[in-house]
């Protein structure tokens, strides 16, 4: 039995898209618990429903039916205004496209999200601390066009953390990066998880999956299997990669 606190709980979660006169059932009666402090990775073949699940359990999209509780709050019955406030204060998102504002500096891209969650002085101090943590302090006055892809994604992670969010959701955050810059981003996320940050990430990347403490495999709108990997350590990466590969192969990945 998992003794960690449940931070996301779904029951009979369904998502249906209407296409003309027919409905496409993308998520089918999913019962799921996500636990505090885990690095949860969701994988599956194209069309399995993994991204739809991520958006449904993160408040980014409204499921068609079922129950979704995030941090003890029933998001299914929230108004759009309540959801907007919830997203700003409680959760944050990292996407494949970093969505940085190109007319703002590295520091400004992080701080503008935080203003309104705390005093300006505290947000500025926290932003500088995050830049230092991610090795970006010397780039604080640079614009996104002057940064590498890996640096831009680390800025996006800093932006996701500035408001003190309890859960980070990632949708293929290393998908557009090469191997070395992708590793830098994964190292940053792993470091955050080691510090207690809860992370839920969709990926198709085997290397990214090895960072998971828990791996969920989706197919045809269901969660078909899961693999508990425990805490990541670099010296066990090769062994973990082999375990993950064998697990995915068993699922027909």
CA radius of gyration: 18 Å
Percent range of helical residues: 25-40%
Strand order of the largest sheet: 6-7-8-3-9-10
Oligomeric grouping of the chains = single chain
Mean pLDDT: 92
In total, the number of domains comes to: 1
Major sheet attributes: 6 strands, mixed
The share of residues in extended strands comes to 25-35%
Structural class: alpha/beta
Total strand count, please? 10
What is the chain-wise order of helices and strands? EEEHEEHEHHHEHEHEEH
Q: Helical stretch count?
A: 8
**Shape estimate:** globular
CATH class: Alpha Beta
Task: Characterise the protein shown here.
A hairpin with a 2-residue loop joins strand 1 and strand 2. This protein has a single domain, classed as 3-Layer(aba) Sandwich (Rossmann fold). The chain has 8 helices and 10 strands. Strands 6-7-8-3-9-10 form a 6-stranded mixed β-sheet, sandwiched between helices. Strands 2-1-4-5 form a 4-stranded antiparallel β-sheet, with helices on one face. With 253 residues, the chain is an alpha/beta fold. It is globular, with a radius of gyration of 18 Å. The two termini are 28 Å apart. Helices cover 36% and strands 28% of the residues. Keywords: ATP-binding, Nucleotide-binding, Transport.
